[in-house]
Amino acid sequence: MSATVAAGRSRHVNVWSAIATTLLYSFLVCLAVIVIYPLIWMALSGFKDNAQIFGDPFALPVHWSWNNYVQAWNQGVRGYVTVSVLVTVASAICTVLISAWTAFGLTRTKMPAKPLVIAIVLGGLMLSPTVAIIPLVKMLQALGLYNTYWALIILYTAFRVPFTTFLIRAYMLDLPEDIDEAATMDGASEGQIFWRITLPLCRPIIISCVILHVLFAWNEYLFAMIFTSGSDVQTLPVGLTSIMATHGTNYAVVFAAMTISALPIVVVFFAAQRYFIRGLAEGIGK
Amino acid sequence: MESGAVLRGVARPQRPNRPRARFANLSSLRWAAIALILIGWFVYYPIVDNFIVSTTDQDIYTGEVTNVGLANYDRLLHDPVVLLALWNNCLYAIISVIFQVFGAFLLAAIIEDLRSERWRRLWRAIYFVPSAISITVTGLLFYFIYQPQIGLLDAALSRVGLSQFVMPWLGNEHTAIYAIIAMSQWQGFGYSTLLFAIAIQKIPRDLYDAATIDGAGPLRRLWSITFPLTREMTGLMIIVTITGAFQVFNEVMVMTAGGPNNSSQVLGTWLYQKAFIEDNFGYGAAIAAVIFVLTMLTGAAQLWYTKQRRVQL
User: A57–B134: do the CB atoms touch at under 8 Å?
Assistant: First the structure.
């Protein structure tokens, strides 16, 4: 549409709009370079040796060898990845199931005091982990969960249930209720309706929630740093700082470890971008 | 997990007006029970307990806890680092609002104005990539980028003839906090750009078409259509960004841990320093209480705004 309008304008305007377009595109390209180049530099530095790292930082690696990546993987990263996968998967399942369960109760049952329950659950959105951290240390030490996976799985679930419930509830509110009513007529219990009807219908938002949770749990740092100290229970973000502390002088290995830990999440993001954006849009849209 | 799947006869008709209806209503609380217990136990209770801890002093050697009343808060008022940390949090908030709210809004408007959907998606995705990556990775990455010997920044500066600006960015008291904040903008602006892009997509296209036919240029359309129709989103983003700025911890911890000479401390890292390095739980809890009050204020602002505008984030 703007093409026809532009055709009607004077040549003068066309020149200016061409300049503006060029400037805009150069701006977008420059910004993209600023965003992407440091990440490429990180991955490339993982291929260099230390002498090269201290040389020209813009140079490409001379010998492309996977040596540093292999070394990083064998000297700790493998363990950290295992723990990260375990904690992320377990807390994602717990969070999404508990949230869907709660959202169902809030939208489909005759639960008493619903506004109060909603206020309590969603109020959790406002409370930050930093504020709770000191009492949590005392509590988890008393429970004997300090320095275990369980500490992270429980805390990631507890702190993410409010947000996830909020997203799933918004989605359930928009689902038509006549299928439920028909199922109730046929004698299905609430539990059956949840597992057989509502949960499958919520698949898109469930996938979005899983992705948002994976992004959170894979990258979480504060809890992971405070509640784990042994290298066998540390997740990647904390493990990286440990690698930095032990291999501090061998920068190439640190770069390789950083790249290994960033790669899966970037791949997940690009593979699941559609669901991810839907999750964000649901979060704002209501 | 309990499925609640007590099988009834499939064809049995519903009994109307059950005497146990009241119990049935109460028992449907079971749907929320796990969430309520979990959140109450691990989110709400610690925050209440934090206020109790903040009025005590624990001896690290004997473990003896003594009640000291408001002494920790009194100390806090006279702690120069608390004031500096609070200022750094404010700097964080101001700079983030400029780049991650207004900058991101402009960027989203530019991207959404492009004709090809494929290009729009590509730009959004590229700018988002750093937000997907762990803050430990980006923090360490920029720790290296700012390093004088191996870093990109100083190398780039000397290459373009600005060698008078070459310095250890994180090792300098005057630049450390700005270097950290800059990293944070680099990482976060793509995320808010994506959110604004989603908000802009919800504006009906025919508004733009009508404006174009009436002869409105791109700037005019931005000012008269895009900006007013995403104002709710902008307001919310400002509040959310400020809340985040008062909770900031990770990037400072990874890059400088508050140094050099406490110049880049924020409330979160000062809490960590006091509670976990110097083992002073009581004082740490008092700092946590300050963060709590600040985030409650922004949270209340958010609730108020949401009620007014009927949008949520």
Answer: no
Task: Judge whether A55 lies within some domain.
Answer: no
- DSSP conformation letters of chain A: -HHHHHHHS-HHHHHHHHHHHHHHHHHHHHHHHHHHHHHHHHHHHTTS-HHHHTS-TTSPPSS---HHHHHHIIIIIHHHHHHHHHHHHHHHHHHHHHHHHHHHHHHHS--TTHHHHHHHHHHGGG--HHHHHHHHHHHHHHTT-TTSHHHHHHHHHHHHHHHHHHHHHHHHHHS-SHHHHHHHHTT--HHHIIIIIIHHHTHHHHHHHHHHHHHHHHH--HHHHHH--STTS--HHHHHHHHHHHSTT-HHHHHHHHHHHHHHHHHHHHHTHHHHHHHHHHHHH-
B104-112 helix and B117-132 helix, angle to the nearest 10 degrees: 150
Please give the Cα distance from A137 to A102 (Å, whole number): 27
Residue-range domains of chain B with CATH: 33-72 (no CATH), 73-309 (1.10.3720.10)
- Give the closest-approach CA distance of B168 to chain A in angstroms: 15
Residue of A131, A139, A193, A255 to mutate, testing the B interface (most B Cβ within 10 Å of its Cβ): A131
Nearest to B248 by CA among B273, B270, B266, B271: B266
Quick check: A18 contacting B, CB < 8 Å? no
Nearest Cα residue to B232 out of B254, B273, B203: B203
B111–A280 C-beta distance less than 8 A: no
Question: Which residue segment(s) compose the domain that A228 sits in?
Answer: 77-285
A102 and B35 within 8 Å at the Cβ level: the answer is yes
- In a domain, residue A242? The reply is yes
- pLDDT per position in chain A (286 positions), as tens? 444 444 445 566 678 888 888 898 999 999 999 999 999 999 988 888 877 877 777 878 877 888 888 888 888 889 999 999 999 999 999 999 999 999 999 988 888 888 899 888 888 888 888 899 999 998 998 898 888 889 999 999 999 999 899 889 988 988 888 888 888 888 888 888 889 888 999 988 898 899 889 989 998 999 999 998 877 889 999 988 888 888 767 888 888 999 998 998 888 888 888 888 877 777 654 4
Question: Chain B within 8 Å of A93 (Cβ-Cβ)?
Answer: no
Residue A39 and residue A123 in one domain: no
Rounded to two decimals, the ipTM of the complex is 0.84
Interface of B with A in 66-95 (CB under 8 A): none
Parallel, antiparallel, or unpaired for β B56-58 and B65-67? antiparallel
Q: Give me the residues of B, 148-167, that contact A with CB < 8 A.
A: 149-152, 155
Q: How many domains does one find in chain A?
A: 2
Would an 8 Å CB–CB cutoff place B130 in contact with chain A? Answer: yes
Q: What is the CATH number of the domain that holds A140?
A: 1.10.3720.10
Task: Provide, as residue numbers in chain A, all residues whose Cβ is less than 8 Å from the Cβ of B12.
Answer: 187
